[in-house]
Amino acid sequence: MPEKPLTVATYAAGASLAAITLFYVFAPNYFLDGESNSARKKGVVGLSNPANDCFINSVLQALAGLTDLRIYLIRENHRRTIDEPWVYQEIVQDPAYKNTPEWKTQGLQAGLVTKGLKDILDALNERPIYRKTISAGSFIRVLETAFKQRISRQQQDAQEFLQVVAERLCDEYHAGRRARQAARNKGDIGASENKAALIDGDAVEERLAELAVNGDGRADTAESSSKVHGVEAEPLATRNEDEDGFPMEGKYESQIECQKCGFKTKPTESTFCTLTLNVPQSSSTSLNTCLDGFFKTEYVDDYKCEKCRLVHARDLLEGQLSRSNSESFISRTREAIQKLQHAIDTDPEHPPPDVELPPMRDAPACKIAKHTRLTGFPKIMAIHLSRSIYNSISQKNSAKVTFPEKLLMGSLLNRKRYKLLGTVTHKGSHHSGHYESFRRQNVSLPFSTPNAFQASGVFVKSATPSPASTPRVAAMHKSGEPSPVASTPDLVSSSSGASSPNQSVDAFTRLSADSIPPASTTSHSQASSRRSPTFSFTRDRESDTISLKSVAASARSTMSKMTQSARNSRPGSPRGGKTPVPPSPANGKTVAPKMNGVKSKRRKQNDRWWRISDEKIKEAKTSEVLGMQREVYLLFYELERESSAES
Q1: How confident is the model at residue 68 (pLDDT cuts 50, 70, 90)?
Q2: For the residues of 27-89, what is the DSSP string, one character each?
Q3: Fewer CB in 10 Å around end: N or C, the chain?
Q4: CB 639 within 8 Å of CB 248
Q5: Better-predicted residue by pLDDT, 214 or 365
Q6: DSSP E strands: which ranges in 429-488?
Q7: Choosing from 54, 273, 305, 308, which is the catalytic residue?
Q8: Which of the residues 290, 434, 477, 524 is marked catalytic?
């Protein structure tokens, strides 16, 4: 009998091998998509640091957590892929920079850095099941190819690297947009010349109707032929497509006001990709104080105002006019005074060219006020806290800068709300140190799968199932007999709005996982009447109705028991608590259940961060991020959407 233990051992080994195989096949999906109760911490992809590349790695990790930037990169690369190659191969010069070399313009229109950044950010946003580290060398080579120069691997500034990348992305977007616009204009011109535009069916029908009525076909021949052949080319401004621009590009304007004459110059608009704020030399300050220092009114002395100069020139001519007796001089002087007065009243910035003005050094000096305000709010607000102090030697300003998680920008009538998504910190002196980055652990809807083994709506933020996330559809009955579910108002009916396929994404994001649609007898009767408007019960069928109601009541009690047991068996749910009270139709608000001495521990969503130092990655909390007040150097805020801001 020596073969029996061998057979048992063989079967045992085979079963163990099968169990191990099943574990390795299904365990990674569970750990990635499901919420496990184990202490295993998930990680992200790190970046190697072979040669002082921490300034590159920290910026790339911070950019990898910006949702709007990734959406822009995907859209822009897709646009360049589906367009014809000749659209971006023909050189279209920037009107503001006509002396740009062709190789640089070609690289801007091709979007070299845009594609390279998308590839590296996609690699950094993978979900590895083990520790993974990649190199940023591919993106560095893309930058070196785009600028045709090598990037030094000595101690560099992270803000300078961010500015180079952001401004290059912005230039590539505008170059691609000019190329697309030139291609559209070229297509419109060819269509108008060759009459090869699309056929307008409505215009054809109108022309045929006119021929049928008139019979001669001679009325409005030119106009009707243009309608038949196609729609005429519209101007450039009206046909410009509504493109979402570069998300990091913002605009601010500055205006100068003379304190002596009250003249205000025309506002000067400037664009920015990173907003540089000076940190005051104090022990502690705040981000709002730094913003106020940037946008506050600045007063400048000994300024030469254009209007004051024209007024001074007019006064000099009037004095000469009073002392002169020559008629020719008097006539010329009066004409010059009239021209100066017209320029003073209309546009002092453009004096008359044929009137000789006194030298600028003789113009009176005055005090001006410079006003700066933000006019274009970017989707991603990249803020640079300048900590450099330049005296006899350059030093680092180590002042504490408190910064909020939610940043409010704009006026009361145009309020914008931003949310902190990433930071870059620096430890060390002005000449050496190390950069780290913090990324918020956010996965944008509807791409997140917080729990792979429970029913949940595609746009529901929470992982717990809810009636709003799993809509029920009533069955269709062919026979004339009414359905108990459709005709009995005692059964709890799901909200019809949750199952509507025409709701927008913003409407879905407002849904909470714990919100239950209001259920009342009136709403149930209205819902049942909408489902079966032709069903009406007579007195001879009262017995059937009573039996149906009893069946419905028993089914409802069974479902409530099953729901209560499922809630009690769910991990993290309080036991022994009261049943949640549904919202009343009076106020429409959900009343929170009162627990018997048990405090509900609800962990804040999006409270977890990644603290990344090259290839070293660990978890952090929002409090730890906000505590990096001496080290904070770069801040990345993302504009909140209206749906998320309201919730």
Answers
A1: very high
A2: HHHHHHHS---SSPPP---EE--SSS-HHHHHHHHHHHT-HHHHHHHHHHHHHHHHS-HHHHH
A3: N
A4: no
A5: 365
A6: 433-440
A7: 54
A8: 434
